[in-house]
Amino acid sequence: MEKYVCTDCGYVYDFKIGDPDNKIKSGTAFKDITEKWVCPLCAAKKEQFKKLK
Fold first, then answer.
1. Residue 15, Cβ neighbours under 10 Å: how many?
2. What whole-number distance in Å separates Cα of residue 27 and Cα of residue 24?
3. What is the full DSSP assignment across 1-53?
4. What's the whole-model pTM score?
5. pLDDT tens for each residue of 18-34
6. How many CA atoms are closer than 13 Å to the CA of 39, on its beta-carbon side?
């Protein structure tokens, strides 16, 4: 699984960690996160994230 980075603030979503503060369990693939989810640091929409290479 890949990591995704917020193009607005640089926050990195790592599926191994998830986003426990927003009830996204560890092991959750980025594609499986609801479209309503936003960046926990800057509130950017999910579409503002790009796959980290």
1. 19
2. 9
3. --EEEETTT--EEETTT-BGGGTB-TT--GGGS-TT-B-TTT--BGGGEEE--
4. 0.91
5. 999 999 999 999 999 99
6. 19
